[in-house]
Amino acid sequence: MDRFMAVERALRGAAPHDLLTTARAALRRHYSVTAVELLVADYGMSTLHPVGTPPYTADPVSIHTSAPGRTFGSQQPYIRVAGDSQEVSLHLPVSVRGDRIGVLSLRVPGEHYSPEVLDELGNLAEILGHEIVIAERDTDVYLQARRAERLTLAAEMQWQLLPGRSLTRPEFELGAQLEPAYAIHGDNFDWSTDGDHLTLTVTNGMGEGIEAALLTNLAVNALRNARRAGLDLQDQAYLADQALYQQHRGAAHVSVLLLRFHLATGLMEIVDAGSPRIWRMRNGSVERLEPEAQLPLGMFEDTVYVSQPFRVLPGDRMAFVSDGVYHVSSPAGDHYGDKALARALTSTRLLPPAQVPRAMLTELAGFRGEVEQEDDALVVCMDWHGRRTG
């Protein structure tokens, strides 16, 4: 049997909790690999943690200053050859459709290494990523490894809602991040794509702790239910609004930004039902888009929502931020505001969308200083490429 197919078959047949052990055995047998380590990114996207150790006990690896971190950031293999060429160290990205899971680190004897081997091992790392996503339905091993500290119950509920933290398609690239990662309350994002559309929602639920998490869970699932029923954007907002009102009778509401992108044309429909804001960078110029403000979901019975059309062009970068970003103040009392947001978008213009939210939130933390973060902060970044014709 071909060596690549043999390892692939072993991974696909492995027990959910046993992927790493299976990968080690198969790679040693078929590629003479001498060491195998799987590192997964933590919820804060700042460190990488080895799989296979009890939670919170392993020494983390920095995403910013390590060889595996270099691979995680660039999403390209990083290769180190020993001076005597007796052994080659490989760090390979483990990702699924642009969603960055972690890094597979290997050591291969020099006599068994070649460009062909590198290509095959890179493809196997991608297959491993797909298997991890499937395995997470049945085991906590990989979710536990991602934790630098214990999540609050509210944060646990919020992270379980998310579709991922990045997504890549020929028409667009998406990246998102929530802070504080281990204690988030009501902020969330969701996306879904098919052959013709991308639907994106940015949610900011009122309140704190479990109450905020429960409120956001209801809103996100109500929107998903309406979307999966095939309803248009304004009807998705209407039905979610009714679900929230029926449950809370106006005592609790959710601010939501709903967007639907037509992949073939770049037409963007927007329902702005609350506080999340939209920024666009086009040809190096940053501006805030201001669609008509409508009522947050759940405030009143039978609220009617209207979608507004905008258009995105190839090369546009869009950013969607919650009020936990633009309402932050410095220790001196200075407001973060629109100018600082525009500067942050400009300073991160060379980064891919998957890295922009983390970079912007790091800059925000520096602006806030030692002041305790009082609200969730959410950033979603999208680069629009458009659909190629012909």
Automatic annotation (TrEMBL):
<dbReference type="InterPro" id="IPR001932">
    <property type="entry name" value="PPM-type_phosphatase-like_dom"/>
</dbReference>
<dbReference type="Pfam" id="PF07228">
    <property type="entry name" value="SpoIIE"/>
</dbReference>
<dbReference type="InterPro" id="IPR036457">
    <property type="entry name" value="PPM-type-like_dom_sf"/>
</dbReference>
<protein>
    <submittedName>
        <fullName>PP2C family protein-serine/threonine phosphatase</fullName>
    </submittedName>
</protein>
<keyword id="KW-0378">Hydrolase</keyword>
<feature type="domain" description="PPM-type phosphatase">
    <location>
        <begin position="169"/>
        <end position="384"/>
    </location>
</feature>
<dbReference type="InterPro" id="IPR052016">
    <property type="entry name" value="Bact_Sigma-Reg"/>
</dbReference>
